[in-house]
């Protein structure tokens, strides 16, 4: 089992400034799954509760000189502490920029090693960062779990395949910061959030407790997938009536999720996505959030990066 | 004149406000614990919110109708209802968007006697809240504040200094004695509990802290620390920043009145020099009053 690659400048930028801070918010520990073509960060795919998050990069988006080999079809997966990984990348960057003369002068190498730590009798696996400075080299070892067995990797791959189903209707949230600001304040009022999404481009979130009903409705959002024209007679109704009618017409779906999960999913604004879409998976299986990234300086989707998360539905009976 | 059908349709109050954060600040100032019941009273002059604790502490927030950009009152008698202060403040807070002016409409009653809030500044995005109201409990104790004599016993101190003094008195805890001396004119806060601590405001020595002072005879009363603390513990940062001054008055029987002013004006980014704007800003102040009963064993006169 071997893995060795050099982080590119762009890769360092993506990880250090954007993705690792965002992924860290999703959960301290994640699985890092490496294949011949992809580098994938996975949260909560194997244990049922919590937000499932999948951040997938084509190897070229992060690395050059990418070499991987294993007896399991060149796939390697292990658990890693995101905050330690982030720290290692950050300090490697500072060493590079301290001594570096241009992008190729100092290369940041990452490899999988087994080492005998101090005061230990058994060697342990690490992801090692090696930075060559002007006269010195700095090596940082980030501890990782024992690489997953063939069976565990298969299980992970199966879970990953299962998490790819797309909602029929996706609506684009225009202002992620504003929604996050609202949901963060909403957290004080209740724990359960009803989310309904219609083919007309309406996103309606609502907390309902014995003391208060608090909600927000965003209308005329950009829709991807199945869409319909909003009936004119619904224009002047209250948000609640409007979404009830849309659901009964079969033009909208509604699910209940944890407010905390919803707020957490909004933390992905740290990764600076260019577009954010919300949708409800078929049969109300989960609330899916899809983030899109543009190729810098264009409005074209960067296909080498994909990020989405799936929020568990708490009470499918109400949908 | 008016038919009952019309009465049933027109709500008692519809008002709009363009500075939600100011309102949140004002209500937060009287929120000294997590779960608190408040009584709201509506009238043609404005809205009053009242909270009370164990017959010893009462706070009122006065929002005059000038605070609102629209105020339509159409009730006959003054409607009163109870709400959970925490729920009210937390839901109002969701309407506040940092760095943006957000207009909120407050309406009472809803179809099920709810208090209704709604954002009205955007057509395609709307935040709304329906807060369950209760039949208010009668206030257990009469907080009629009467002057202690012919001349007032009062002083005005910079709000930040008052808060600092009360915060400092935390470690002795238990009770705090407030004494006013006419000569030399001074105010003393003395905490007794696990040890004692004294904070003096000398009128002549601390002219920048003690803004005004009226006292013709020495008085001294003791107040429970936790009630005294409630009067400044959640004082909004805007009040501390503006540092206008808080007025403390001792009334008959040692009843202490603490008054703060909270600006509910639109955050002024432009034209601070225009007179009419300045005039408008002046009238858009929420008045906050706390009434604290003294401890029984007063060392009076």
UniProtKB/TrEMBL annotation, chain A:
Primary localisation category: nucleus
Keyword field: Nucleus
Database matches in InterPro entries: HUS1, HUS1/Mec3
GO terms (BP aspect): double-strand break repair via homologous recombination; meiotic DNA integrity checkpoint signaling; mitotic DNA replication checkpoint signaling; mitotic intra-S DNA damage checkpoint signaling; nucleotide-excision repair; telomere maintenance
Key word Glycosyltransferase present: no
UniProt keyword Kinase, yes or no: no
Signal peptide region: none
Transmembrane segments: none
Location of this chain's protein in the cell: Nucleus
GO annotations of cellular component type: checkpoint clamp complex; nucleolus; site of double-strand break
Family label: Belongs to the HUS1 family.
Protein name: Checkpoint protein
Taxonomy of the source species: Eukaryota, Viridiplantae, Streptophyta, Embryophyta, Tracheophyta
Gene name for this UniProt entry: LOC111488042
UniProtKB/TrEMBL annotation, chain B:
GO terms for biological process, alphabetical: DNA damage checkpoint signaling; DNA repair
Domain of life from the UniProt record: Eukaryota
Cellular location(s): Nucleus
Keywords: DNA damage, DNA repair, Nucleus
Organism: Cucurbita maxima
Tagged with keyword Nucleus: yes
Annotated protein name in UniProt: Uncharacterized protein LOC111491589 isoform X1
Lineage: Eukaryota, Viridiplantae, Streptophyta, Embryophyta, Tracheophyta
GO cellular component, one term: checkpoint clamp complex
Pfam families in the cross-refs: Rad1 (PF02144)
Family assignment from sequence similarity: Belongs to the rad1 family.
């Amino acid at each position: 089992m071997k893995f060795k690659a050099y982080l590119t400048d762009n890769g360092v930028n993506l990880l250090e400034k954007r993705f690792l801070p965002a992924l860290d918010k999703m959960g301290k520990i994640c699985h890092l799954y490496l294949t011949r073509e992809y580098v994938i960060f996975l949260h909560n795919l194997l244990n049922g509760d919590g937000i499932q998050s999948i951040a997938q990069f084509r190897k070229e988006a992060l690395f050059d000189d990418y070499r991987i080999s294993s007896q399991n079809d060149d796939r390697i997966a292990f658990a890693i502490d995101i905050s330690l990984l982030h720290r290692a990348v950050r300090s490697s960057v500072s060493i590079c920029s301290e001594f570096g003369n241009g992008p190729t002068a100092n290369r940041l190498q990452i490899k999988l090693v087994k080492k005998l730590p101090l005061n230990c009798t058994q060697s342990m696996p690490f992801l090692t960062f090696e930075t060559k400075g002007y006269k010195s080299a700095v090596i940082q070892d980030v501890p990782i779990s024992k690489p997953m067995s063939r069976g565990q990797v298969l299980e992970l791959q199966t879970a990953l395949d299962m998490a790819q189903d797309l909602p029929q209707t996706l609506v684009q949230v225009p202002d992620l910061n504003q929604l996050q600001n609202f949901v963060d304040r909403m957290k004080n009022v209740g724990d359960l959030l009803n989310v309904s999404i219609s083919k007309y481009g309406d996103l309606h979130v609502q907390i309902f407790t014995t003391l208060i009903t608090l909600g927000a409705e965003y209308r005329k959002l950009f829709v991807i997938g199945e869409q319909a024209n909003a009936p004119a007679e619904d224009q002047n109704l209250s948000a609640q009536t409007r979404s009830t009618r849309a659901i009964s017409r079969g033009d909208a779906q509604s699910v209940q999720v944890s407010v905390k999960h919803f707020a957490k999913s909004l933390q992905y604004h740290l990764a600076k996505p260019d577009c954010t879409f919300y949708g409800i998976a078929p049969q109300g299986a989960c609330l899916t959030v899809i983030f899109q990234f543009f190729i810098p300086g264009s409005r074209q989707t960067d296909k080498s990066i994909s990020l989405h998360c799936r929020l568990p539905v708490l009470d499918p009976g109400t949908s | 004149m008016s038919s009952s059908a019309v009465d049933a349709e027109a709500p008692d109050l519809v008002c709009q406000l363009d500075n939600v954060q100011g309102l949140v600040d004002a209500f937060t100032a009287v929120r000294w614990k997590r779960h608190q019941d408040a009584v709201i009273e509506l009238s043609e002059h404005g809205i009053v919110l009242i909270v009370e604790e164990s017959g010893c502490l009462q706070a009122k927030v006065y929002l005059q109708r000038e605070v609102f950009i629209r105020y339509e009152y159409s009730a006959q008698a003054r409607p009163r209802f109870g709400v959970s202060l925490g729920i009210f403040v937390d839901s109002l807070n969701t309407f506040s968007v940092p760095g943006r002016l957000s207009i909120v409409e407050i309406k009472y009653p809803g179809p099920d006697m709810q208090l209704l809030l709604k954002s009205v500044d955007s057509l395609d995005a709307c935040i709304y809240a329906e807060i369950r109201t209760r039949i208010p409990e009668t206030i257990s104790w009469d907080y009629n504040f009467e002057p202690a004599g012919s001349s007032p016993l009062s002083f005005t101190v910079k709000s930040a200094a008052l808060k600092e003094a009360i915060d400092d008195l935390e470690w002795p805890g238990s009770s705090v004695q407030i004494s006013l001396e006419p000569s030399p004119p001074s105010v003393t806060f003395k905490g007794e509990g696990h040890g004692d601590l004294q904070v003096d405001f000398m009128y002549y020595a601390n002219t920048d802290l003690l803004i005004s002072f009226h006292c013709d005879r020495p008085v001294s009363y003791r107040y429970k620390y936790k009630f005294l603390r409630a009067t400044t513990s959640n004082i909004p940062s805007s009040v501390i920043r503006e540092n206008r001054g808080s007025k403390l008055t001792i009334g008959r029987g040692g009843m202490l009145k603490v008054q703060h002013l909270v600006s509910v004006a639109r955050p002024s980014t432009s034209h601070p020099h225009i007179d009419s704007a300045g005039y408008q800003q002046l009238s858009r102040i929420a008045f906050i009053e706390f009434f604290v009963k003294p401890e029984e064993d007063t060392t009076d006169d």
